[in-house]
Specification:
By secondary structure, the protein is of the alpha/beta class. Helix content is 53%, strand content 7%. The chain contains 42 helices and 13 strands. The strands form four sheets. The chain has a four-stranded parallel sheet. The chain has a four-stranded mixed sheet with strand order 6-4-3-8, covered by helices on one side. A hairpin with a 2-residue loop joins β11 and β12. α2 packs across α10, α3 packs parallel to α14 and α33 packs parallel to α35. The termini are far apart.
Length: 978
């Protein structure tokens, strides 16, 4: 949009100033064109803003000077209607500020989007409010003064995202079919400190109070031209913008009259507006906001019939210098067309804020908001005025008295507003008023900072206090200041006390912030909390703790002595699932399938993390409802997997007593498993379905329908994927082992539900892996199916050790055998045997380079299965070193004794003697098998004197199963003392 005309030289109250600036520009630049146009245009902007029939009150966010000027103007003018630059849909929340301790932030939150890209979720907009801000003084005045109407006129929170450049780029990409990149002006600025110094731990924690919400503020008065800001900082001899603003704008305007304040603020807003880079997106958004606000103002005036002389328009100084065609009540430009809101359902509430959170979100210097609060308190005390405050129900009578006092200063009826006079010329030409050194104040700072530093581990003394005092005065003199400012004092304290060592968590700069007011943290009162948050506090009341405090509370629950605390325990476990880990943290006790602790201990920080609890209230009315919605949302997410759904099933069983929800989530798990084309989550699926099967087998008469369907679907699914995944290089050995573990561990259940075992046999037969670990896995699977005998598997492993070309890769085979313990746990003795054989046979030149590879492979690929191997080795090897010398490995024991004559091997004479000498065991086995009988005489060839022979049933049993007797005889032969 082209600049507004300069106007006639010498016309209006600022004609002399316009002529003076034009002549200075011509003398300075050698041409009256560019620079003269800028300077004269600034004067025209001031003239235009102050000549408007509707009084415009320009402000800067969190500025004590703006707050004090607003306080004075409200007491003098006492407007009946206040138009405020704030999102119009936030107005119903402002009354809840009376139940809060500032600073707090008004928030709009949306988790389910309609009309915006889903990857933007959740959307959050916040508007922080401090007591020193001009907007809070206007809000408090309007809400506590009868007959005063407060109207918010800025764009809605929905339009904040509708007008963001990234949304416009998304729409353009949808229309053109090509993606476009645009910078998002709705994104919060960088949270790093302007000084470039590291933020302390405490400040970093408090800086997260606003999260990733988009900040909305009144009067973002800062140059958008980097070169201009750098020029101002350099010539002002300051380190960051907050210090420049405090020295050159804030302090001169604190005691300025109303007309001077308005003219200077509009002048600064116009200067920054004209010297900003040409950004079409940012400029268009700013001008649309101004058109929006003036349109809403005219609509309200037309509907209410209010007199503009009784109204006040509070907006940022940047927008006060607006040049849009809709500016002013007398504009003849067509009304701005306001688009409809999207279908997104927004939820509103208040969240706690803090000084550091405001500084981090809006790119202010650390401590600047705390310094502003201290400046505000000092200025209010010096001026002798009482600021407006929203009081709770118990303080209404006292607040009412304050209002009556304010009304006493009202101007007489029928008074006309004063004419605009030029106050800029005198303000800009007059030198800064000398402000003498307040030695008592500076001395108190120095003494207090030394005391605070000693408490935090610094070796500070009285000499350091003197050094800080003198150094502060020296720094102020070097920076052309009449008296040391807070920033000078902070720099001096860092130089004289901290030096180069920080003994604790807080550095001296942070200690100075604490000394000058600290990082004040707000709190939302109980009456202003959403229903869910109030319900949580009410349900946890039996704990007997004050959960609204910001300290961490320890809750002890003895559920056996007081069963009534079981409801509190259930609620705490649900909150642990929904809230951040530090908000509700269990110290003792656990909640898992089939297990409930009888004693629990919790650390609760609900008062400190109010924001998380409040935003939880935006999602539902009760915790159970929100948890159910979260679980459903998790399994319906596009990236959800079968493992995700099984985890949701476990959580639903442990936290919610809702079989209907469990069946729904389990059915979804079956659908996700059938649709998966990879086995990346197979280990997680196997672990979770095993736990669920064990739970149902222990607590239910039969498996739920969804669980049976999951087993049958998984059996067929993994049988189908097995031949392709074993040859896929991207599929790891652990995933293949988990697949086989599912197939073998669920085999009995799957077959009982109608699955065919031949499907598994065909899948194993069709699998032809090449990677050594997967080859070993398939060998173990074939052994489990009975296709590969253990003797043949032992021969294959011996052949691998005999082949010098294969020995370097033998650790990978061993890794496969280790993973095979998942599907074939009975293979553990063989794995121990294979490892022992390798260590016994391989020479040191081969074994030593091979050993690190083995350890690394086992650590990376099978850390959870190695303990099984260690336990098996502990059972196999002798317990003492003395027994190791005479120990014979079981796989090297004597072979069975064959029977002569070529007949099948039968029991040896010692076996027959053992059985006849101890017939009780044989009788028990025979009775169990249903073949009990009488004992008959033993033939003399057996070698026993007299005695009895085995009964027909016992003899038949021993003859049919000779291996058992042979094993017993071998054990007796190898046992010492036998």
């Amino acid at each position: 949009m082209p600049a507004a005309p300069l106007g006639d030289a010498g016309s209006g109250p600022f004609g002399a100033l316009r002529d003076q600036l034009t002549e200075a520009a011509a003398a300075f630049a050698g041409s009256p064109d560019a620079l003269a146009g800028i300077l004269a245009g600034i004067v025209d902007d001031v003239d235009r803003a102050l000549g408007e029939r509707l009084e415009i009150f320009p402000v800067c966010h969190h500025s004590p000077a703006s707050g004090l000027a607003m306080l004075r103007r409200l007491r003098v003018k006492q407007p009946k209607v206040i138009y405020l630059e704030l999102c119009e849909d936030l107005q119903p929340l402002l009354g809840e500020l009376r139940n809060c301790r500032l600073p707090v932030a008004v928030q709009a939150f949306a988790s389910e989007l309609d009309g915006f890209p889903t990857d933007w979720a959740p959307l959050s907009v916040i508007a922080p409010i401090t007591e020193a801000s001009a907007e809070y003084q206007a809000i408090a005045y309007a809400l506590q003064t009868p007959g005063v109407e407060l109207v918010l006129v800025d764009r809605s929170t929905d339009h904040v995202f509708q007008w963001s450049p990234r949304h416009r780029a998304q729409q353009a990409a949808d229309d053109d079919g090509a993606p476009q990149v645009a910078e998002d002006d709705g994104a919060p600025p960088a949270a790093a400190a302007e000084t470039g110094e590291a933020t302390t731990v405490g400040a970093a924690e408090e800086a997260e109070l606003h999260g990733d919400a988009v900040g909305v503020e009144i009067g973002d008065l800062r140059p958008r031209f980097a070169e201009l800001e750098a020029h101002l900082l350099h010539h002002g001899k300051v380190r960051h913008w907050s210090e420049w603003w405090d020295q050159y704008v804030e302090r001169p305007l604190v005691d300025a009259d109303h007309d001077t304040y308005r003219q200077v603020m509009v002048l600064i807003g116009s200067l920054f507006r004209r010297l900003r880079p040409s950004d079409a997106n940012r400029t268009g958004t700013d001008e649309d906001r101004e058109r929006y606000m003036w349109t809403r103002i005219r609509q309200h005036l037309a509907a209410s019939g209010a007199d503009p002389a009784d109204c006040l328009y509070v907006c940022g100084a940047f927008h006060a210098a607006s040049r849009v065609e809709q500016f002013g009540l007398d504009s003849t430009a067509p009304a701005f067309e306001i688009t409809e809101r999207s279908g997104t359902a927004w939820r509103y509430g208040l969240i706690p804020s803090s000084h550091s959170a405001i500084e981090a979100q809006f790119g202010l210097a650390p401590g600047s908001v705390s310094i502003a609060a201290a400046t505000w308190a000092k200025a209010v005390s010096r001026a002798g005025v009482t600021p407006y405050r929203l009081s709770g129900r118990t303080e209404r009578s006292r607040a009412g008295g304050g209002r009556r006092g304010a009304r006493a200063a009202a101007p007489p009826a029928g008074a006309t507003p004063d004419e605009v006079t030029d106050r800029l010329s005198g303000f800009l030409a007059a030198p800064a008023e000398p402000d003498g050194l307040d030695a008592a104040e500076l001395r108190g700072w120095c003494v207090d900072i030394v005391r605070l530093a000693r408490r935090n581990g610094y070796l500070a003394s009285t000499a350091d206090a003197i050094a800080v005092f003198e150094h502060s005065i020296l720094l102020a003199g070097l920076r052309n200041r009449a008296r040391p400012t807070v920033y000078d004092f902070t720099d001096a304290a860092v130089t004289c006390i901290e030096k180069d060592v920080v003994p604790g968590r807080r550095d001296v700069r942070r200690l100075c912030e604490i000394l000058l007011g600290g990082d004040r943290i707000g709190q939302v009162g109980y009456d202003s909390l959403p229903p869910l948050a109030r319900d949580v506090l009410d349900r946890l009341r039996p704990l007997g703790l004050d959960l609204e405090k910001r300290t961490i509370s320890r809750a002890l629950l003895d559920l056996r002595a007081d069963p009534g605390l079981g409801a509190c325990s259930d609620l705490l476990w649900m909150l642990r699932y929904l809230l951040p880990p530090t908000t509700v943290r269990p110290i003792m006790g656990e909640r898992r399938l089939g297990h409930r602790s009888i004693q629990e201990s919790w650390d609760l920080a609900l008062g400190r993390d109010q924001r998380a609890l409040i935003e939880l209230g935006y999602e539902g009315v009760t915790v159970e409802q929100v948890l159910e919605l979260r679980l459903r949302r998790a399994v319906r997410h596009p990236s959800a997997t079968a493992a995700t759904a099984l985890a949701a099933v476990e959580d639903a069983i442990c936290l919610l007593d809702s079989p209907r929800l469990v069946d729904e989530l389990g059915t979804r798990a079956v659908e996700l498993l059938a649709a998966e084309r990879s086995v990346d989550d197979a280990p997680d699926v196997l672990r979770r379905i095993r736990r669920l099967l064990a739970h149902y087998q222990a607590t239910a008469a039969h498996l739920p329908a969804w669980c049976a369907a999951f087993v049958t679907t998984g059996y067929a699914h993994y049988c189908t994927l097995l031949p392709t995944t074993v040859i896929d290089e991207e599929t790891g050995t652990r995933q293949v082992g988990a697949m086989l573990g599912f197939l073998f561990s669920m085999e009995s259940v799957a077959i009982s539900l109608g699955c065919d075992r031949s499907q598994l046999e065909i899948a194993v037969d069709q699998s032809k892996p090449e990677e050594p670990a997967k080859v070993a896995l398939l060998w173990a699977a074939r052994h489990q199916l009975g296709i590969l005998p253990l003797a043949e598997l032992r021969q294959w492993c011996a052949a691998l050790l005999d082949n010098p070309l294969v020995v370097p890769a033998f650790p990978r085979y061993l890794a496969g055998f280790v993973h095979a313990l998942e599907p074939v746990p009975g293979l553990a003795p063989f794995v121990v045997e294979t490892l022992s054989t390798a260590f016994a046979r391989l020479p040191d030149p081969v074994l030593l380079p091979w050993l690190p590879t083995l350890i690394t492979t086992l650590r990376e690929q099978g850390p959870e299965l190695v303990p099984l191997l260690v336990r098996e080795a502990g059972r196999t090897f002798p317990p003492t070193v003395a027994e190791l010398d005479v120990w014979v490995p079981p796989w090297h024991g004597p072979a069975p004794v064959p029977v002569s004559g070529g007949s099948p091997a039968g029991p040896s004479p010692r076996v027959s003697a053992l059985l006849t000498g101890h017939p009780a065991a044989t009788d028990a086995v025979a009775a169990l098998l249903g073949c009990a009988g009488d004992w008959q005489p033993v033939p003399s060839s057996v070698g026993t004197a007299g005695g009895t022979a085995s009964a027909a049933g016992g003899a038949a049993l021993v003859a049919a199963h000779p291996a058992t007797g042979t094993a017993v005889a071998t054990l007796l032969a190898t046992t010492p003392g036998r």
